Amino acid sequence: MKILVIGGTNIDINATSINEIVRKDSNIGNIEISIGGVAKNIAENLARLDLDVSFLTILGNDHYAEVAIKYLKSLNLNLIYGKSKKYPTSIYLAVFDQNHDLEIGINDMKATDELNKSFIQKYVNFKLYDLVVIDSNLCSETLEYIANYCDKPIYAESISVNKVLRLKPFLSKFTAIKCNKLEALALTDTKNHKDIESMMKDLASQGVKEVYVTDGGNGSYLYKNNQIHHKLPYPVNIINTTGAGDAFYSGVIYAKALNKQELVYGNALAKITLESNKSNNPNLNRELIERVVENHEIRN
Predict the structure, then answer these.
(1) Which residue from 74, 218, 246, 248 puts its CA 20 to 30 A from 282's CA?
(2) Which range of residues forms the domain containing residue 105?
(3) What does the longest C-alpha to C-alpha distance in the chain come to?
(4) How many independent structural domains does the chain possess?
(5) Cβ neighbours of residue 195 under 8 Å, at least 6 residues apart?
(6) Domain CATH code at residue 224
(7) pLDDT one-digit tens code per residue, 175-210
(8) 166: number of CA atoms within 13 Å, CB side?
């Protein structure tokens, strides 16, 4: 299966406080800088799992871009990129508390707006791929173009409560969408849903064929073919939550490519990523993910 991932590449700056955060003051902690971005994280995970992946992205005309290009070219993927002449490479700053939970995130991703219709037309022939992955960092013009002209299965990743609304007009064009609970609620026509099942049915009624919802410690859900599936998360020693949602969806796509169980592999890859201090676990490979599945499925 040939997979195309379209979306942003960021410089991720993750700061984790050692003690309880004191607001409006300097806090002692640890700071990690890495190459990130939702689409990039998904592309990297799939490449590390030896799938045939192409990644279309945009960078700035700066030092960070050169660092990102060098890193991405070191992965087993086909990198397709352009450079913005107007904006710097996107940056995402995340601050975590002493429990590794996100306290606040700030993003500057203006360069991603240049992943527009003309950019897609220049670099992409959808007929070359079997599945296309997008995220809601893309602007509405780009999403509309992909929705109308891509005749391959489209898998959409929501990213945030604010940005997920960009996907709403095109739900009927998507094969699948992945959200967390709050993002799913934002997409529904009624704000009075009391449970995830009703939210998922609402999203399905808007035309999307497969609805994936993650709900932290309560597990993950899949609604397709008028059936709901639920799976509790695997036990995990959380080191860093950045990239966990991207990893879950990467596991889902990996499962689709190899005709395996979506929630099982979403769980496994989320666990592998949560137990790393990076948004992509550098130790990820097929042997590792299969071992995690075996340890938590077959032996249990």
Answers:
(1) 218
(2) 2-298
(3) 54
(4) 1
(5) none
(6) 3.40.1190.20
(7) 999 999 999 999 986 666 778 999 999 999 999 999
(8) 23
